[in-house]
Each structure stands twice: as structure tokens, then as C-alpha cells.
TrEMBL record:
AMOP domain: residues covered: 257-385
CDD domains the UniProt entry points to: EGF_CA (cd00054)
Subcellular location(s) per record: Membrane
PANTHER family to which the protein is assigned, alphabetical: MUCIN 4-RELATED, MUCIN-4
Alphabetic keyword roster: Disulfide bond, EGF-like domain, Glycoprotein, Membrane, Repeat, Signal, Transmembrane, Transmembrane helix
A GO term for molecular function: calcium ion binding
Occurrences of domain NIDO (ranges): 82-255
Protein name: Mucin-like protein
Amino acid sequence: MQLMYPYGSSAGDSEIPNTYEYSWQCFKIDIPDDGMQFFGKRHYKVHICRNGLLLFDSQWLPWWPYNFGERWWLKKEAMLAPYWGLTDTDDSFVIQGFSKVYYHVYSDSDPSSTPLLKRASSDTKRLLSTPLPTAFKASWVLVVTWKNLRPYQYPANMANQGNTFQLVLITDGVYSFTMYNYPSNGLQWSAPTQRMYYRYYSNSYGLPVVGWNAGDKGERKYNMPRSGTVNIETIDGIRGNADMVGKWFFRLEESLGKLNARQECIDWFKAQPDPRFYTEYIEPCPCVLRQAWWDERFTVNWRDWPRMCGYAQFPSPHGWGQECCYSTNWQSWGALLVGNTGGGSAHRYHKLTEELRAKHDSSDVQGYQKCCVNSDLCDLYYKRRPSDNCGNYVVPEWSWLWGDPHFVTLDGKNYTFNGLGEYMMTDARDGFFQLQARTKLAKGGGTATVFSAAAAKEGNSSVVQVELNDAEISLSVLIDGESFNYTSLSNESVTLKGSVAVAKPDNNSFVMVFPSGISVTAKAVSGALSIVLAAPKSFKNQTKGLLGRWNDDPEDDFLTPNGTILPSNANSKDIHYNFGLLWQVDNRSSLFTYKPGESLKTFENASFVPMFLEDLSFPNDTLRKQAEEACQGDLNCLFDSASTKDVSMGANTKAMSSTLEKESSSLKNYPPRFVTQLSQVNVTVNQSISVSVVAEDPNNDTLIFSVFGVLPRAAILRNNSNSVTVTWNGTNEHIELEFVVTDDQGATAFLRPIINLCACHNNGVCLHSASNKNSTHNSNKMNVLECGCLNGYTGTLCESDLDACEANLNPCYPGVKCIDLPPPANISGYKCGPCPNGFTGDGSKCRDFDECLQGSNGGCSQVCINTPGSFTCDCRKGYLLKIDQRNCDDINECVPVSDCMHKCENTNGGYRCSCDDFFKVDPSDPKNCIPESPCQKGKHNCQHICYLGSNKIQQCACRRGYLPGDDGDSCKVLDWRIASNSTTYSSAIFPLDIDECAVNENRCSHKCNNTEGSYTCSCVDGFRLDADNVTCIDIDECLEWTFKCQDSSQRCKNTQGSYKCVCEEGLYWIDNACKGLGKYEKPPPPPPAPTPRIPSLIEERQAIIITIKGLNLSQWNLPLEQVFKDAVADSVTTFCGESRDCEITAPRKRRALDYILFTSDQVHLLPGYPERAPYLMQIRVAIYVQFPPGVAGDSPSTLDKNILLTVINSSRENFEKALNVSVVNLKIAYLDRSTESSFTETPKVHHEETTIGYFIIGGAAAGVILAIILCVLGCC
């Protein structure tokens, strides 16, 4: 696995513009589709900041790094921090171009992204410690690479040191991951100084933070080990949790693998084809419910009440279906619903087609469920399954035949033909579709006929035959010649053999619908069939037969099979002989199925002569009068009454004609249409709103307007003939508007615009962007828009004063007060207090004042080292820093003993070795001496050294640390007690072999270990030898990351020989962790002081008692005790450094300083102290002071009580000032073993209880304390 992902111009990356704008705000990247999950929240954008941060919500660059979970102002901020540091976000980017931030978005919508998405998917699967519940395939990846970031206020010698690192954000919409990549030596700073000075920055503010924060009020967060310390720089050389040096990998959610409902919808949306090509071939929706009811191309389902929808009987050529839904509200009954208001939709898979039904359920039904039911993304559903608005709907043309056969052609021509036989009603597209009908003699005088059967076929479909049954009151149906039990049907269609849909609207009716959209309805009425043919306009100009040529011209409807046209005004006799009989079918063309013994000839009678219309007569006046009364002038009614001698037959003809005419008229009546395309209404609070809608009617019917819904209070409605207007004063109340327009035929259309409520306060501006995901979706009828606030305001509705301090994540220097300015101050409307001492600036960006660059070198005599907010002096090699912390004292390397073989001469900052007579300095070792005239090898008996002395006489000498033997040739070890009293031998010619450690003839600053002829040095715990192998220097456990604290929130603070675990300033020890306070939370009370350690008998006898005025015993706590100990330690250090009275009896040792540095670690209270003094507001404290580790050697390790008494007394003024108290009495606690002072009662002994909240003594010091305790207990 490779560490870094490709980046830079060669990888096609974009670069964040190098403008000053992005020095204080971050660069926005939109996350497409449904965003990505970051634990408890889904995000739709990220912001890339120059200082090594990725923010999800805020766009303002947070300046001061803090570990996550500690500061209240960061707990709500969702962010990723691969290396959040105090970075130069200005000149290094804008002017010099040294620093850069690259980014690259990879998406599965871009084919060129495929290779990297595959790599991200593969890396993710490999790096996961446990498998995911479901498969993972990255769909969106963001790679951000920060290159050559410099520290803020970098010194000149760091101009070429920059940090380079990378973040990779990976998601598939369900799972989210991030990867932090650190190339080898990519991190070159954690503080604005060279690494040798990091120890001075170990407790400074603004050290880089690495980790992430979910923004869920601190519940889920992660701080990398070493985050917030100077040691974080080493992360590029540490094996990360991805089991690779420099790579770290994190999962950013806790999904169980189930898709988020919105993401399920989006994934469904992505998988669907663009419907625009396919919807061109789908039947358009009828415009009102009654059109859908009478248009047999659709079947209406009543069972889903209150949802009422029609569905196309047959699929499109591509298998699509059309669903059309209608309003069932009484106000807008039957109006077509469109879109996300309950509207129907095109279906990719026709649900009435059996072989497509399963796909319909998994695709269309599931898509609706995912987008419209489980989530609020119904608009996406309708983009892939659009809702038809009936704009292209054309009603089918009806033609019907009924009674003593009367015909209404497709062009509306009405005539009568009484042939007896089987005839071609219509032949469409030269045999593509045919409808044939059979007649029989009607009851009566034998001069009339009625329809008794019909047969139809389209293309390769089944032949459907319907006929009167033997009782002539019901129907019989044959499908491809086979009897079909049509009584099992209902008014919902059933598709037979995939070629014809059939239904039974009522007990005596039968409907057949063919794939082309042609339908035939047969109904048994009084012993006859009435037949209705409905033909789509696609058949216009392509029909012939008794139902005429359909071309909107009734004049040519009497087209004969041979192409001649009978005049449209021909009488019924001409129509009978010269048109009707010519369309009789023959055996070859007949669609009918015949019973045994029957044939076409059975029903044919060409010689039959009916009554003709022009010969209309009644056999008697009684029948005529009855007919005239029943028919009320209807010619067809009169004719049927006369021809059948049955008035009821005529009445049925009239009733059927009236019904069919009304149904046809209803079908052809289009509803009104809104001219005003009003999809949204923008309502602003406290502004007058006026909404007008205009409508027109395609049939020029009279219009009636109504407005329903949740109307605004005091709304005013104004109507006129073609429009309605609603006026009201905008409030923040919930409203819904439904405009309904109805024509005088009862056809209805309605319009329900979405209400966009702009309720912004303080002159905020509403954001009407369609991509605004932050609008409040109260319903699909009303949105409360997000507001763009003017300067100084914030909140969803700009209702709150913007707290610029909080919005900028407390931008002031740590500990500096941030003051929010009142409106119209904007995001920058805050003011910081003054920078702390040692810094300059505006209180936000406080630049360290480099005292070392001043002309006086900071007052240091030799080396000045700048530190955060201050400086420190140091000395060059060969010098020790003096007690004044400014000047340096030369180290006399020649005392108490040097490492020269013969003579040592001290120099400023060093020393020189020289040799005795007859010797010279060894060229290969300037500390060693060799004879000027050595003896010849093999010509002497000297054990160590042979040289030519006076008069060239051979003489023997021994190496340093040895004594010549009695024979003058050999060298032997001499007991140091004898050597110390001898004056016989010179130190050069006859060196004494001594125990350098016993007689303090060594340079060790801590421990001396004697060896034969020499010695070695070692250090007490917590120290190590310096390069000179004699000086012990403190081990910085914090810098070397060898400390161990109780909780990771604690910071390591180095001490001489040990360390403490403390809470960073501003944090408090609460529930066993360092925690920050809430926004308005008060600090907890200070922790109590720890129980003192048990002293040794020697330590106890060196204690003094200080009586302090101005304190109650209840006021004594850990912080106060720390101040007290610091004051004591400072006083002892100053006194001992200036007077030298504190020196131990042993000769001067090699130390790193020219004085003994005491710290609070060496100041101890006796058990039982402090205690209440006899007087009010007075306490007594008994203390003793240890020497720092390694200083005392074998001498007593405790400062003499008389010296301690003198120290406190001499520094009483400073001591009192530090504590803000008065010292009223000082005395020695124990005068001697037998006589005790007035305070000589046995000290109260308690087991020590370390208060971890403020410090924990660790490392070597803890071991020393434990050893002392065990020793004391053992002696007792």
C-alpha cells in the first residue's frame, strides 16, 4: 500500500486560490447527492482551511488549536484535523507562494475518477480492523494535500522548513472514513523554533492538534497521542493505526450498514435511466377523473381510496406504464394531481403486465417508498418517474351503434342501416384492427333488425367475440373461439394472453381493450346489443367501414369498399343498398366463431327488406300516439317504435342515445387550465402579499373560482370571470393555498403552490436557492426559508445577536478576554483584550516579542534564547549560568581534579593540559603525556612507562592512579589512606593510585564509581550524563515521551529529575480528567492540598515552623500550597546562590548551573500541618527542604534547619508579598532529640494521598520517595 495519494498539478489537483481571503476563512467544497455521514449528522459541504483543518459547518478559520473535547466553543464544531497548527496563512501563501493547499474531488459520476475510487475502496477494506456489515464501494473521495506550511511568526532560519501532509475523505453515502498521511520528514515543525529549543515550548499555547471532532457536544472525538505537544511533529515517523509508518485511518460513523433513507433514494435515483426518451411513448393522462373513467385505455382503481388513480391498460413499446391520480377532496374532486402532491407517475415497468410486475415492485414501488415515504426527496422520484400533466392528452373518438341499427360514425354522422347479416363496422389500417357486428331480426313485424353479436381483433391479438345469450338478457364471450366466463370479471381490467384487456363494467356489459388503445364496449339492452368503439387519434385517416372514414369530415363517411363515396344526404334506402350491404363480410374475412351447423350464411339474408326511414309509418294511431309521447320528437326512437311495433324499444333507443351522447360529451369536456404557472408563493412577514391566478377553459365554459386550504387570517378574495386574487398581510402562521377552478360542466382543475415563508428578523434576507438543504420542510405545502443575516445577527431567522467570539471559536489568545461587539458588527465584530506580557498584537494574533533581538541581547552576557512570551539566558560551553540568570561563570575544569595526565591550566571557557619534565603532550590525545625520549622497546623492565631522564638515565613511571612498586619497575595500587599521608612521590613521576571517589578527587556531579586507576560517573534517577561524561543533566520525560499520566487529558510538566502531570491552564480536574468549563459554568472549588509525605528522622529534625497571619486553615488548598512552596524554593535558591552558606561539606561538584536550583519538589510539610494557630486568622506550617537530586552525594540530603530559618527570615518581605500574608513567627520545630520546643508534639502521621488534579509526582522522584518510606518503616 502506498502512503500518499497522488497530488499536485501532475495529479490534476486544483489549488485553493492564493488570496488573502483564505487567510481568515476556509474554502468550500460541496458534497454531492445526500452528503456524507459524520457520526450523528449528515453533512453536505466541507471547508478546507490553510492551517491544516477540514471543517464541516463553519467557514471561518479557527486560529488557536486546542485538543478536542476540552473547550466548550469547539464541542459543536465538526472538524478533521490532520495537523491543525499555528500556521502562516498570509504571506507564505499570497506573496511568496511557498505554501500551497491542493484538493481533488473524485466522484463516481466522473468516469475518470474510477481508478482512484477503486484504490480508496481497496485501501478502506484493507485497513478496516473489523469487516463492515455490508459491502463498501467508494462513491466520493476528497484528497487534500497541505504542502510546505510554515509556522506563524517563523524565524529566518526556518524559512525553508515546511510541513507537508495529506487528508483523504472517503464515503459511499453510508460509511465514511478518513485517512491521514504523513510522508517521511514531511513534518518539520511543531513550534516556531529549532528542535533543540523545543523544551522551552513544551507548555506553550497553540501546539499542533491532530485528531477529529464529531461536533456532537464532545461526545465523540479523538486526539492523537502527542496531540497538543511539541512531540506531535514525530508522528510522521511513527507507525500509525493503519500498521504503516505515517498513515492513520479512522471510521467516522457507526452505521450498521443500512442505508440512510435519503441515501437509499439517491442510490435508486442514480440507477434509473433518464425518462425523457421513454415518456414520449406512454399514454398521456386524462385531465380529469371522469375522462379516465370513460377512456378505456385506462383502468381506474377504486380500492386504494382515498387515493384514486387510473392506470394505462397496456405498456408502452419499452414496457413503461402510466399512472394518473386524481383529487378526492370535495373541493377539487376529480382534478388531476401532478407531482409531489399525490400525483401519479410514469412507471418504468408496467404493473398490469404479469411478467413486469415483480420489476415494478422492486423499482417503481420501492423508489416511491424510498424517496416519498421514507425520506423527503420525493422530487428525485418524480424526476425519474415524471408525473404527466395531461398537456398532450387527446380524448379517444367515440362511435356507437345501437337499437334498430343506428350508427354514429367516428366523424359524428348519424344514420340507420337495417341489414341482416355480419358486417364490417370498421377496418383500421387495412386490417390491423377490425370490428365486425352481426344483426338479427328484431321482435315485432319483421321489418327491423338489432345487433346480436360483435367480434374484434387487432394484429396478432386474440379474437374476442361477444354475443347475446339465448335468453337475450345477458352476454356470452368467446376468446379465440373458446368460451370465456366473463361473469368472473369486475370493472377492473384483466389482460388475456398479453394482447387484450377485458372487463365487466356492469352485469350486462363487456369491454375489450387492445394494445393500440382501441376499445370496444358491448352492452345488452332489451334483447339487443349496443356497441361503442373508442379510437385514439393515431387511427385518424386510417379507417373504413360502416363507422365511416375518420377525418373530421362527415361528408365522406359513406365510403364503399370500392372507393366510391355515397353522398352524405343519401336516403336510408340508398344507404342500405349502395353502402351498407357492400360492407358485408365473407367467409374469408369473418372473425366470428360459429356453432356446429352454423355458418356465415346462417345469419345472412341479402333479400331482407327493412322499413326505411322515409317510409316510417305506424300500424295504428294508438301506437303512434304512444311513440310520439315517449320519443318527444326523437327520430330514431320513433323509427324503432314503428319498425318493431314496440314503444319500449324506441324508448330504450332514445335513452341509450342520450346516455352515450352525454358520456361522449363528458369525455370531450376538458377541464379549465391555469394560465398562471404558480408553483411557489413567497411570503414575507409584515409585508402585503397579493397572489393572482388566471385560468381559461378549452371549451369556453363558464368558470367558477374557489380558494381552499389553511387560509391566512383576514385574507381578502376577489373573483372575476377568469381569475381570482388573494391578498393578506404576511405573518409567520402556517398557511396553505389551494386554488380550484371548475367549469359549468363540473370539470375541475386545482393549483396548490408551495408557500415559502420568509420570516427573517433584523432585515435578514431569505435564501431561495433550490439547493438550500437547510430550509425547514414543515410539509410539502410550506417551507420556512433559511435566512441570510445582516451584519451582527445569526440564527435560523436572524433572531439572535451574533456572538462573534463564539462564531470565531474564541479567536483571542488563550486567556485573553473576547468582547462581542453589538450589531451591526459582523463575524469580525469582536475585540480582544491586550496580549499578555511578552507579546505584541491585537489580542487575537499575539506575536511573541523577541527580547533576544534587542540591542542588549536580552541582558544575557552570552547566549539569549527566545521563549514564548519571555526569554532565558544560557552560557557557552565551559561556562555556568550564575544566580542572576544573566551572567556566566567560567568552569574551572582543573578542580577538584582534572582529566589531564600531568598538569591542568584553567582558561576562559576551557582548560589546557601540559606535561612534567622529560614528557610532552601526546599528539593523538592532548590530555595524555608521553616521554620525550622513550626507552627502547625490550631494553627496560618498566611495567608502565620508561623514559630517559637526567643524564639519559632510564627511569620508570606509572600511569595516573598507580604507585611504583618496591622494585622500582612495577606499578601497584596504593591504599588511599597511605597515599594521602605520603609526600615522598611527585604526582607526575610517581602518581598515587587512589580511590578518587572516596577522596573527592573526581569531577562527577552526582555519583562516582571507582575503577582501577580511574573512575566513572553516573547519575541519580531522572538524570543522564552529558557529553563530557561527568555532568548530569535532567532528563526531560515530557519531551522524550517517557512519562505516564493517569489520563490522556493531562499535560506533562518537566521538573528537575522528574515530572508532574497537570491540567492545562483553563482546564480543571473533574471526574478524573482535565475538562474545560461550559459557557456559563463556574470553576469548581480548588482541590485540597495533598497529605504530606512521611519524613525520615533526619528530615523531621531539620524542620522549622512558620506562623502565618491572614489565613484560615480552611483556605489552605493545593494552589495555595503550591504558591507557598514556590516562594520557599525561590528564597532558598536565591539565598544559597548568593551566600554559598548552603554548600555541602563535599568539594564543589560539576553541575549544569553555577548554583543549586531548588524547586517546590524539594519543599515538604510535616504531617499534620498546616494547623490552626491559637489566634484568629493564623496558621502554622512546619516545613523542611531537601537538596535537589544528586547534589548532596553522601552528605545529609536535607537543608540545615538554621540555614532554612535564616533564609525565610531574610526573605520575609518577598515571601509575604507572594502569599499576601504576614509572617509573625519563625522557630525551629525540634531543638534536639531530648528537648522539644513549644511545637514539639509528635507530628501527626498520615498516609500520603496525592491529588492528581493539579500534579502527580512521577518518574524517579516517586521511586526515591517510596524507598525513603520503606526505609523509615523498616527502621521503626
